[in-house]
Each structure stands twice: as structure tokens, then as C-alpha cells.
């Protein structure tokens, strides 16, 4: 009972702070991009900046993190549950595609984690949120981490072309498993495909060795459906559903495209809990 009261109070504080801000929501909507608003909201988890909640629609906030209750009440309860002073947020990458903003973040969030967050905006306010989180891991066999690498967008004029390439790659290679077509998407040579998955080395050779090792251990990675592909210039995010080692999972794969080929990859695989453990009924995807 006390926990419920605390969560309600936290939400009330967040909402009241938004209402009492000296700068109106309309003014903030006009002066900040959606990308800046999403970044401010995430940073507020660490800083406690209560003004950032003004970027969330208090009457319509759909939550797809299945461990968090729906709406602003769920967001407030989550913040209340964090040990005081423990949260750290270091956003490494942020991208905007129409009404969507997606970020790639180094977190201390109930422990060291790496996360992708996706926000949908309507009329300048956040109305929906998705994410994929995983534990922070040591560098992979090529010495790359889950977060390092380029952060600057290039080829902004090729966004739709790059999204189409990644959508084709996901369908052809990951869903259908037609590995004979890999050359259409990735060039040979370790330097031509930089890998940030914590268990896989650079290049097609690294990917092949990892798949062989998984096969030896009887571990299958199956992509059953690609739900959405979003991008900004050279960076493209694919969100898919499938299984890993027999467990129902959500795949978030971020690719960097250069000269019409995929040249770099970051990813997070998160198990999807059984429905009896969900704290909202919105599902993990719902695009």
C-alpha cells in the first residue's frame, strides 16, 4: 500500500512540475526538436529534471516495456523504485525518423546496462515508448564494446535507400536464412564489417565462427518477423521478433550503411516475459 502511494506521489510531482513550468508546453514544442525532447526525458532519469515530463502527453502515453505499468503512473513508479542516486544515463546516439526518435544509451539502471529506446510523437509530445535492454558486457573478440564506434550521421539524403537495404537484408538473411545472398549486403574482409555484438568478432568470418559455435551447442537464433525499420542517414534500426536458444525474444539491430553496404552492427537481444508477468497489456511491439 505504501509503495502504491509513493508511486502515485511521484507521478503527481512529475505532472505538476510540467504544469507549473515557466515555459509552456507549446513554447517548448516550438523551440526543441523531437530528438532533443526524447534526449531530455532520458537524461531526466539521472538528473531529476522534472521539466522534461512536459514532453510526454499526460493523457496518452502507451508503454511497451512490459515490466513497467502504462501511462505516466507507470513512469513515476519506475523512477520511485530506483535506488536514490543510482541512475546514470549517457546517450551515445540519437536519431529521428518522422514521428519516431530512437536512442542508444549507456545506462546504470538497476545495474550497468545498454539500451535502445524508441519514442513516438504526436503534435510534439511523446505518446508511446518501446525499449530493449541488456546487461553491459566485456569487449568482444575484436575488442569492440556494445556502444563504441561512430555516432555522427552521414548520407542524410540516402535515408530511405539505406532503410530499404536493411529491410531486404533482414528479410533475406535473418528471416529466410538465404546466406548465399550475404555478398549483396556485406563485403568480405574483417575491416568491412565491424561488429559490436559482445560474442562475435569482426567480419563475415567472425559471424560464421559464432554461428558454428552456436550450432555445436545446439543454440538456434530464429528471426520470425521484422516489425519496423527506422533510420536517419547512415544509421538504420531494425526491430524484429523471434527466438534465441528456444526463448521468445525481441531483436533490436542497429546498422551503419556506407556506399550501399552494411559496414557496422550493434544489437540487443532481450527475452520477452510470459504474459502473466506483464505490467501492461500493450505487447512488446504493436507497430
UniProtKB/TrEMBL annotation:
Residues 1-25 form the signal peptide. Residues 137-157 are annotated as: Disordered. Pfam families: SnoaL_2. Residues 142-154 have a biased composition (Polar residues). Residues 42-129 form the SnoaL-like domain. Keywords: Signal. It comes from the Bacteria. This is SnoaL-like domain-containing protein. It comes from Shewanella canadensis.
